[in-house]
Amino acid sequence: MQIHVTDRHGKRHTLEALEGFRVMEIIRDWDLDIKAECGGACACGTCHVYVAPEWAEKLRGPLDEETEQLDMTFDVEANSRLSCQIIMTAELDGLEVTLAPGTEKERAAA
Q: DSSP strand E in 7-94: where?
């Protein structure tokens, strides 16, 4: 299985993915620039991604916890999700996501 990730510089990466892993873990394990500070606990918003429109309907909807965290996250769009809340399944083979710009703290450090 694979996911396609566009990084913050516009470069597209095709990553091998294992079923059952969180999309955040896959992106992090391939050393792309994703903070994921809370490690997948849905507590920080630093794994924010934009899901390609053709994939959005294939994902289960966000739980209240994710929606609340997105409410406190920068640069949220209609297709925003926390990648720690997307579990890789065979149905998501080929998933397309783009890393969100990041938090103000991340931008200040750049």
A: 12-16, 48-51, 80-82
